[in-house]
Design brief:
binds zinc ion; alpha/beta; 9 helices
């Protein structure tokens, strides 16, 4: 924790002091235009990767960047709550679902959630992405585990984009054209972000090279 406390001090002493006006400007209200869903993985930093400032991204992070399907909402669902607020109140223009390389959540799913007997909440949560395994089953045959994992990470992003569209208020905004959804894949090792191209049916658009 020592480093974290030192960080708070440094932030307030240098960055905040220099940007005081900016923080005062945003202190009363947030007006983000993007709802950003990504993994809880400590190596994924949406603001750093997109070089965005506080107030620009409304972010939800969870294990495996999963959006439970509308029919799976039981009594409490923090992702659905955040999505309602982002779409209906903040009226964001875009939703980005950003998965990433070497995702532990997809690894656990791929290796079998039975191994998570001592972590029942994690097991149940990851099972929400269960259909991903079926989607990559044929692709994975004969592939080294690393490539199969990448296929699962990318299929998971597409599955979550499908899940988003099971929410009536999201579907309505998409149909009105006031909302757009994007699937991104962040490669931690190369620092690049790839966007899914529906035409190519692949994550073929290297956003880090597009100006
Ligand atoms: Zn992850």
């Amino acid at each position: 924790m020592k480093r974290i406390y030192a960080g708070l001090h440094t932030f307030h002493k240098s960055y905040f002091r220099e940007e005081r006006e900016f923080f005062q400007r945003i202190a009363g209200k947030q007006t983000p235009s993007v709802f950003f869903v990504t993994c809880a993985d400590s190596r994924v930093d949406p603001n750093l990767v997109t070089q965005s400032r506080p107030g620009e991204l409304f972010i939800v992070r969870n294990v495996g960047n999963i959006i439970p399907p509308y029919t799976e909402i039981k009594d409490k669902n923090s992702v659905a709550a955040a999505m309602e607020f982002a779409v209906l109140e903040l009226k964001v223009d875009d939703i980005i679902v950003c998965g990433h390389s070497n995702c532990g959540a997809m690894q656990s799913l791929h290796r079998g959630t039975d191994r998570l007997a001592n972590m029942p909440h994690l097991k149940e949560w990851l099972q929400l992405a269960g259909p991903v395994l079926k989607a990559v089953e044929s692709v994975c045959r004969g592939l080294p585990e690393e490539e199969c994992l990448k296929a699962a990470e990318q299929a998971n992003i597409l599955y979550q984009l499908e899940n988003i569209q099971t929410y009536p208020f999201v579907r309505e905004a998409l149909e009105r054209g006031t909302l757009h959804i994007h699937g991104w894949y962040y490669d931690i090792g190369s620092g690049e972000v790839f966007s899914y191209s529906p035409e190519d049916q692949m994550f073929s658009i290297n956003l880090s090279k597009v100006k």
